[in-house]
Design brief:
The complex is a heterodimer.
Chain A lengths: L4 H32 L8 E6 H4 L7 H9 L15 E5 H4 L6 H7 L3 E5 L7 H5 L5 E3 L5 E3 L9 H5 L6 E2 L23 E2 L5 H4 L6 H5 L5 E5 L6 H8 L2 E2 L11 E4 L1
Chain B lengths: L11 H27 L14 H14 L2 H9 L6 H25 L8 H4 L6 H29 L7 H24 L12 H28 L5 H32 L2 H11 L9 H19 L1 H4 L2 H28 L14 H31 L1
Classes of the chains: A alpha+beta, B mainly alpha.
Chain lengths: 254, 385
């Protein structure tokens, strides 16, 4: 049998298609297999911030300093270019809907501690075109600084303003570099990582540890007897913009 | 590439035009080098307004690219012969516009050297990934269609049969590129100005007004500079289509305004307030937005009255007004309005810097250069026949 050029091309094309098809079937098979295996015990890190305790000491910024020095967060004076993982904003800006004209008098200007909410369904993860930000098995939303292309789509998607972009080289603006945590490069997005590097060593988040008033309680939200769950059981707490369906893991005890 | 050698002969004036465009491209490139060395800090962008002129230009030119369908559809689906020449010019405009879009995305990236991560680590839930597929496919399709059509015309043979399905596919594909681009914005929680189901229809309406308006302007310029006539009837037909698209666009914007202000929900009102009356003491976009509104109404009036529409000068004025109006609305208000006020209620002023604007101008010059070469090549083929 003589194989013409046309036949050869046709056959090799079919062969390639079959190969691709096999790969696709495999990939689908693996996925459906994974979902049929028994569900792993879910872990979801979260925290409860007691705002009353938080404002006991006027102008206290221990947690902010602890976080920012642990994670080599640069300090830029220019508000447009600032990078922050944890910071304070007036109550009226954080919970615009959770106040009436009368409560605003008292609550409006009170400081509220802000950080990434480590959403259960994070919009930042959905929009990232290169899978550089994702939710880990323990509920922490994290970023791969080496994969991020700096498109800033996640900053547009985050309804909490939790993300910062390195508009310039951050290394020049770090007072003292902590050698245990990577510094970032210009042109990537960063935010609170719930101290995942400390969680891996069995420690709690740096902000919670640094707080003398114990205003920040962290723990596994999926574990009914965890400290954070006990706090949330006994005190009334709110989340930021729960109506958006993102499922924030940070709770505020007002 | 083949046939493009025809763009290498021209008058002194032609070369002067090409040289000045190259100069602007050079200026833009130098500013881009500056941005590469110092980071995006050289732009006017900030933590609160993290997208600006680059992404706005991208959005606007996706519209220009999509609008090629306005000439392609009547010609190929309805056999409207008047559009025979406009069709090729429209497809070449689409190729140019998509290229500009890709450049605008590229210069916006913080880590441009990692751009291939989009291919290496695609994330299928990201609308940006699908936008890349849509734009890349559209660019390829239009480039192939244009080259095949022009080659056939040069050889004076009918176009090969296999190109027909590609052309037919390019019609829904044109709609898809602007729909997917709208979905980049309209699916984000917490950005009330964008979170509206009529964003995609609005994008299409404004695209079908601004793109063909640009095509008319280009045809009028060709007529003046080279004596090429695209056909007055064809241009008039295009002008009518532009008028309808513009009317629909104005209607959709007013529908948005109604919902925002009659419902009175603060977060739906705030961006409109910021853009049209000022918010928290910041008024710097107010005059631009009203200029945009005014130009739209003036253009609509000029295009609706047949006597005025038939006047070549007034037609040019109307088309220029539409282009500027929609550029302001989509290229400025849309992006900044989506970011202001910020999720924490802050109003941060965004003003593009000189390097940023020069980079944008540089990309515009790349576009102008492409259009010049494409149209010169095409016209020289047509002249020969």
């Amino acid at each position: 049998m003589k194989i013409t050029r046309k036949d050869f091309l046709r056959l090799s094309g079919l062969g390639l298609l079959a190969l691709a098809g096999k790969k696709a079937v495999r990939a689908v098979g693996e996925r459906s297999f994974a979902s049929s295996s028994p569900p792993k015990k879910r872990v979801r890190w979260g925290m409860a911030i007691d705002l009353q305790k938080c404002r006991q000491k006027d102008g206290c910024d221990r947690c902010i300093k602890a976080c920012h020095s642990t994670h080599n967060v640069p300090q830029f004076a220019d508000r447009a270019h600032e990078i922050k993982w944890i910071w304070k904003e007036p109550f009226k800006n954080v919970f615009p809907a959770a106040q009436t004209g009368y409560t605003r008098e008292f609550f409006g200007e009170l400081p509220v501690l802000l950080l990434c909410n480590h959403c259960d369904d994070p919009p930042c993860q959905d929009v990232c075109p290169v899978d550089a930000t994702w939710k880990r098995d323990n509920g922490v939303v994290t970023i791969d600084f080496h994969r991020c292309i700096g498109c800033r789509y996640c900053m547009a998607a985050c309804p909490y303003g939790a993300r910062s972009f390195n508009w310039q080289d951050p290394r020049a603006a770090i007072a003292m570099v902590n050698p245990d945590f990577p510094t970032r490069t210009r042109g990537v997005v960063e935010k609170c990582n719930f101290c995942e590097e400390r969680l891996a060593r069995g420690q709690g988040p740096a902000c919670a540890e640094s707080c003398e008033e114990k205003a920040i309680v962290s723990g596994d939200l999926e574990k009914p007897d965890s400290e954070v769950r006990q706090v949330l059981r006994s005190r009334f707490a709110v989340q930021r913009k729960p109506e958006l369906g993102t499922g924030p893991s940070v709770y505020y005890i007002v | 590439m083949f046939m493009f050698e025809r763009a290498l002969t021209g008058s002194r004036k032609y070369w002067l035009w090409v040289a000045s465009l190259l100069f602007v491209v050079l200026a833009g490139s130098l500013c881009y080098v500056l941005q590469l060395t110092h980071g995006l800090a050289v732009t006017g962008l900030s933590r609160d307004v993290s997208w600006g002129l680059y992404i706005a230009q991208f959005t606007f030119f996706v519209g220009v690219a999509a609008s090629a369908v306005i000439v392609v559809l009547p010609y190929y689906l309805h056999n409207y012969q008047q559009f025979v020449r406009l069709t090729l010019l429209g497809e070449l405009l689409a190729v140019t516009a998509v290229t500009m879009c890709m450049l605008f995305i590229f210069v916006d990236l913080g880590q441009p050297s990692r751009i291939f991560n989009i291919v290496l680590h695609p994330q299928l839930k990201s609308v940006m990934f699908w936008d890349m597929i849509a734009l890349g496919g559209y660019l390829l399709m239009n480039a192939v269609i244009a080259v095949v059509t022009l080659t056939a015309q040069r050889e004076q043979v009918p176009v090969p049969g296999w190109i027909k399905p590609v052309i037919i596919l390019s019609i829904p594909w044109a709609i898809s590129i602007h729909t997917v681009t709208a979905f980049l914005y309209s699916g984000l929680p917490g950005r009330s100005y964008w979170l509206t189901a009529i964003l995609a229809p609005r994008f299409l309406a404004s695209a079908f007004a601004s793109g063909p308006a640009l095509l008319i302007l280009l045809c009028l310029a060709l007529r003046k500079l080279t004596g090429f006539d695209a056909g007055w009837e064809a241009i008039q037909k295009l002008a009518v289509i532009v008028a309808y698209a513009l009317a629909i666009n104005i209607f959709l914007i007013l529908a948005e305004v109604f919902t925002a202000f009659y419902s009175g929900i603060p977060e739906h009102e705030e961006a409109f307030r910021y853009l049209f009356v000022g918010f928290n003491g910041d008024y710097h976009l107010v005059p631009w937005m009203w200029l945009s509104a005014l130009l739209s109404w003036v253009a609509l009036t000029l295009l609706l009255v047949p006597k005025w529409r038939n006047n070549i000068r007034l037609l040019a004025v109307a088309c220029a007004a539409i282009f500027v109006s929609i550029w302001l609305d989509k290229g400025l208000g849309l992006i900044v309005g989506g970011f202001t006020p910020s999720p924490l209620g802050a109003v941060t002023r965004y003003v593009p810097t000189l390097p940023e604007s020069t980079i944008v101008l540089g990309i515009w010059a790349v576009g102008a250069l492409m259009i010049t070469v494409f149209y010169k090549t095409t016209l020289s083929v047509w002249e020969e026949n």
